[in-house]
Amino acid sequence: MTSDLTAIRRTVSRWKKGSEGPVLIGGPVTSEPERALEKTKADIAVVGEAELTLNELLELGLSKSDSPSENDLKNVQGIAYRGEAGIVFTGLRPVMARSIYDSLVPSTEIITDYPLYRSARVYVEVLRGCSNYHRTTLSLQHTCSGCDLCQEGSLEERYYCPDGIPPGCGYCSVPSLYGPPRSRFVNRVVNEVRGLLDKGVRRLVLSAPGFLDYGRDLLVEPQPLTDPRHPEPNYGAIEGLLSELNKLDAIAEGKASLMIENIKGNLVTERAAKVLGRYLKGTPVNIGFETGSAEHSLRLGRSSTPRENLTAIRRLRHAGMKPYAYFIHGLPGQTSVTVSETVKTIDTSVEAGASRIILYRFQSLPMSAFQNEPGAPPASRDPLSKGIQDAARRANRRLKENLLGTEIDVVIAEPYDRDRRFHVAYPMLHGPVVLVEGVEVSAGDVFRVVVEELVSDRIVKGRPVDAMF
Questions:
Q1: Which residue of 71, 92, 195, 202 is most buried, as measured by CB atoms within 10 A?
Q2: Is the dihedral of CA 109, 110, 111, 115 positive or negative?
Q3: Residues 447, 333 share a domain
């Protein structure tokens, strides 16, 4: 991730002490490839979608642990490398067609090389890309001419902005890096999940920038899905995916859990909430507010309004899910008015049924509309941001107190390094870290515990009630 530059640099340094092989880096951190190579001292940066690029590099000799020649590298799209005259960026590779993307088969064998894979959340990508091709009007680098194509144009017209403003929410780089949504077919996802379950994975997350975009791209093909509001969710595709996954033995028997993460509030219709609740009851789901101000939300380029998000929380809660509300402090355009409205919305979201408030500090991301904006200072140094932080902490404290006395299923991870009497455990359906005392356990064991004590904002203590599996 973009915030991992220091960790990457340390890893590269350690690698180069014992190997002459080249170092590749990828992921969002390489969306500013020249800086990524300079800071990390890696040899090649893969930018954007990596699969086809990696295949080319392997064919050029990387599979033999040799770095391809500069003459070969200059013809590979989607990379930056160290050339004789300095760092060279070959430009972004075009976004993969859905048929190519869906033909790629991720490995399920390599998961066992990760520590604690039995208790960790393991992500299975169900779609790539984002449908929000709205644009922000808050960018200092670009001036919006008010053509309104990104709000009212055809699907093709929304793809390009005549003013050069990157698509999506101003702080986000997903549409720029990965393009519009492309969904994987159900059998591809089911086979991957089955393979991970066979390896002993307990907690699975269906990964997508917006889960309710799943299958919407099929409704508009061959046009790109660049409208975050229309058409409505592809209910048949979503139900088909979730029903097949819930038939897998480990999930059907409660030995493994299935979760989703982010959804766009404006797509949470009554029908969508019922479908999600039918197959994912009791699981968390994230609704991005970022701001509680309707005007600020519009100017950021958001796809849904705060009011729509509150409605989504009520519908999801009624369907038996646990919605989490996301906010960001220090965003461009933040004022005393937007902060006051955000504080009020945090409280209202809890009243509506939010199970947790998640707060981030704004950081500018390469290839986003705000890439040249200064990052926000810590909330402790900004009175406006501190108001949002205090509201979030108050809300979460109240919500954690509601956990006392409740029973939850947890999966054991490892001994607690600060007090070896305890084991660290993670809720099967997400939630705070749970410290479990006085049990003979191994990593991957699942227990039911009753929550007895709040240790901190992120940790609780639980007493075992029953060993399940």
A1: 202
A2: positive
A3: no
